[in-house]
């Protein structure tokens, strides 16, 4: 049984990006830049933003932090986004969600230049994903696909079940798995809270992707012998962090599994950095 080490994979990616950026800047190219916009005082968002800034610093990416008060007006936020859109040293724009009450997140995401939308939330990038065109892919599903690639777990011709249909994880992941290629070409079923027999659907999966947000909902009896289980869930319980899979019973059946923490989680920021570097490559080429 393979335990998929997302922490190590994310470190490898960060080291690769750092090497590429430092070689380019030594040759006189400007460093990649990421604008990070945080509105309000949400403690979880502050931690995420700090980690993203730290990740940028380690990879040699310049981060431009904009910390705005919770009573910021929509117009002022839109103006800041416009400013970031036109700054030549900004390759990516990250608007930390959720926004405080009174601000329209959808309108703000729409205002971000799709070519700088490194979170992959802009409808243009979502549309590109669905059409199979190049564009930015939401970081968590992109991180899942990168883990499959780096562990050489091909989904071609396999039965994949994605539990969860959110816009940021389940849906884009299902689209990525149906794209053509060795790490695509799967026959995909999407499950959600109205799926009548979740256990039977899960048992049919060669590849089982969990993005539910329910601690240990998926148990070993719901998993086919030898399945690959990718657990995106991050749940806080009284005995610490856990995934959507009951790790003990599921890992006894799986041929490969991501632990929580240390599986998909660390990949998200690595993919944000990768998207930023990709944008920078395109605009400095
Ligand atoms: P959402 O709450 O947006 O979506 C959860 C999905 O799970 C919904 O589609 C919901 O169905 C479905 N669901 C809920 N309960 C059940 C059930 N009992 N049976 C079947 N389906 C069910 O969550 P997200 O997609 O944003 O996140 C999912 C998990 O992934 C969370 O634990 C989150 O913390 C984690 N996460 C981790 C990230 C990382 O690793 N960096 C990044 C993003 C998320 P319905 O649509 O019918 O309500």
Automatic annotation (TrEMBL):
Domain Tetrahydrofolate dehydrogenase/cyclohydrolase NAD(P)-binding: from-to ranges: 138-282
Matching PROSITE patterns: THF_DHG_CYH_2
Reactions that this protein is recorded to catalyse: (6R)-5,10-methenyltetrahydrofolate + H2O = (6R)-10-formyltetrahydrofolate + H(+); (6R)-5,10-methylene-5,6,7,8-tetrahydrofolate + NADP(+) = (6R)-5,10-methenyltetrahydrofolate + NADPH
Residues in Tetrahydrofolate dehydrogenase/cyclohydrolase catalytic domain copies: 4-119
InterPro entries assigned to the protein according to its UniProt record, in alphabetical order: Aminoacid_DH-like_N_sf (IPR046346), NAD(P)-bd_dom_sf (IPR036291), THF_DH/CycHdrlase (IPR000672), THF_DH/CycHdrlase_cat_dom (IPR020630), THF_DH/CycHdrlase_CS (IPR020867), THF_DH/CycHdrlase_NAD-bd_dom (IPR020631)
Organism annotation: Desulfovibrio intestinalis
UniProt GO molecular function: methenyltetrahydrofolate cyclohydrolase activity; methylenetetrahydrofolate dehydrogenase (NADP+) activity
Coiled-coil annotated spans: none
Positions contributing to NADP(+) binding: 164-166, 234
EC number(s) recorded for this UniProt protein: 1.5.1.5, 3.5.4.9
Keyword Amino-acid biosynthesis on entry: yes
Family of the protein in this entry: Belongs to the tetrahydrofolate dehydrogenase/cyclohydrolase family.
Keyword Amino-acid biosynthesis: yes
Keywords: Amino-acid biosynthesis, Histidine biosynthesis, Hydrolase, Methionine biosynthesis, Multifunctional enzyme, NADP, One-carbon metabolism, Oxidoreductase, Purine biosynthesis
Biochemical pathway: One-carbon metabolism; tetrahydrofolate interconversion
Task performed by this protein: Catalyzes the oxidation of 5,10-methylenetetrahydrofolate to 5,10-methenyltetrahydrofolate and then the hydrolysis of 5,10-methenyltetrahydrofolate to 10-formyltetrahydrofolate.
A single BP term in Gene Ontology: L-histidine biosynthetic process
GO cellular component: a single term: cytosol
Organism domain of life: Bacteria
Subunit structure: Homodimer.
UniProt cross-references to NCBIfam families, sorted A to Z: PRK10792.1, PRK14184.1, PRK14186.1
Protein's recorded name: Bifunctional protein FolD
């Amino acid at each position: 049984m393979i335990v998929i080490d997302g922490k190590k994979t994310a470190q490898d990616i960060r080291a690769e990006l750092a090497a590429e950026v430092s070689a380019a800047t030594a040759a006189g190219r400007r460093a990649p830049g990421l604008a990070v916009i945080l509105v309000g005082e949400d403690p979880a968002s502050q931690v995420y933003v700090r980690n993203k800034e730290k990740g940028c610093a380690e990879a040699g990416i310049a981060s431009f932090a904009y910390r705005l008060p919770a009573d910021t007006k929509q117009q002022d936020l839109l103006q800041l986004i416009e400013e970031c859109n036109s700054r030549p040293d900004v390759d990516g724009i990250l608007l930390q969600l959720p926004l405080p009450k009174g601000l329209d997140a959808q309108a703000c995401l729409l205002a971000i230049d799709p070519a700088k939308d490194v979170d992959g939330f802009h409808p243009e990038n979502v549309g590109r994903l669905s059409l199979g065109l190049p564009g930015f892919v939401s970081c968590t599903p992109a991180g899942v696909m990168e883990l499959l690639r780096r562990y050489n777990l091909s989904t071609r011709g396999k039965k994949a079940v994605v539990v969860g249909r959110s816009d940021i994880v389940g849906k884009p992941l299902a689209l990525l798995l149906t794209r053509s290629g060795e790490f695509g070409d799967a026959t995909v079923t999407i499950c959600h809270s109205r799926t009548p027999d979740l256990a039977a659907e899960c048992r049919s999966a060669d590849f089982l992707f969990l993005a539910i947000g329910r601690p240990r909902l998926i148990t070993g009896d719901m998993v086919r012998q030898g399945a690959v289980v990718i657990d995106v869930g991050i749940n806080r319980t009284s005995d610490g962090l856990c995934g959507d899979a009951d790790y003990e019973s599921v890992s006894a059946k799986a041929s490969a599994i991501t632990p929580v923490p240390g599986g998909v989680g660390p990949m998200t920021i690595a993919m944000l950095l990768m998207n930023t570097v990709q944008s920078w490559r395109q605009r400095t080429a």
